[in-house]
Amino acid sequence: MNCGAQACLPTVDRETSLAAERRARVCRLLIAEREIAGRLIDKIFVSNPLWDILLDIYLAEFEGRLVYQTCLAPGAPPANPHRQSRRLARLGVVERMLDPMDNRRINVRLTPEMRSSFDELMDSLGSLWANE
To answer: What whole-number distance in Å separates Cα of residue 115 and Cα of residue 124?
Structure first.
């Protein structure tokens, strides 16, 4: 426990919260880097749609957002998001599940294994950038 003058909070909860904030910040930086590079250089040189999708799904979890399959490839023909989510599910990277509020929609989230890998990646990048 970490008891201060303000309140007594479990240390693990505070550390977990700080780690989550750092991970979300690193993910936002990666997304911004891709957008800036695409704008200034050319999207053809920095385009990796699957990576962009995974970053968006990862960030959505921190922001409490659901990611619908149809939102995976904005601006693309409607078949693309369905194809991409099925491909990622076959690779064991995401889980697809029916939306309990609307069975026409499919929600997508990272598998626990991929989420753990992304957490480790964001922690490593955060440490690397902090040491610069």
So the answer is: 14
Q: What is the pLDDT of residue 32?
A: 93
Q: How far apart are CA 95 and CA 76, in angstroms?
A: 21
Task: Compute CA 9 distance to the chain's CA centroid, rounded to the nearest angstrom.
Answer: 27
| 11 token code pair | 């240390």
Q: Is 130 exposed, middle or buried (CB count within 10 Å of its CB: 0-12, 13-18, 19+)? A: exposed
Quickly tell me which residue has 């078949």 as its tokens: 79
Rounded Cα distance, 22 and 26, in Å:
6
Q: pLDDT digit string (tens) for 50-73?
A: 898 899 999 999 999 988 887 876
- What is the separation, in whole angstroms, between the first and last Cα of the chain? 32
